[in-house]
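Re: beginner question about structure tokens

> Can someone show what the tokenized structure looks like for a real chain? I only ever see the sequence side.

Sure, here's an example I had lying around. Input first:
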Amino acid sequence: MKITVKAFLVYLMLYVIVSCKEKVDKKIQFENEDIIDKILIQFYPTFQDNSLMLLDFSTRQLNFQRIGLKKYFYPIPPREIVLKYAPKSLSFQIDSLSYFYLRDSITFERDDFIDKEISCYDGISYTILYIFKSGRIEDVDLINSLTENEYKLIIKLIDLNIAHSTDTLTRKYLEDLRLSHD
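And the corresponding structure tokens:
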């Protein structure tokens, strides 16, 4: 009986050691994976001002900014000038639920880092810049074509900005931008 108890204890210790080694190996593998640290999306919609969104995963900060001037003057014949304002910029921290959704639910695949274009060109285009923790960069041009992951990312970021917009002009711009994705 002593031999069986000793054999059992030796087997149990070997099992624990092997199990712990697998967990350590998996943890090291996870820590060595190159994960996305920042995402910059530039929007070039038809008949709207250009804009960009920057998501920083390390600080959980989301920034929305127009590209161009705050206001434009358009001459209208015969002698009128119309003043048009651009949307305001936003900067805020995203909530934990949104952060975990963006980090864990959207699993980017190789196709998400490839330029895409659908043959019908209507002027709508985007660029997405993925910046990884290692410093690696993936720069993607999208013309009328999004993968499911890119679509989920863009919609979520637009929705977060709509929820944090403080004025009707910015909210209207973001809602129109979102409608162009439906």
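Each token stands for a local structural state, so reading them left to right follows the chain. The beta strands are 36-44, 50-56, 61-67, 71-76, 80-85, 90-93, 116-117, 125-132, 137-143.
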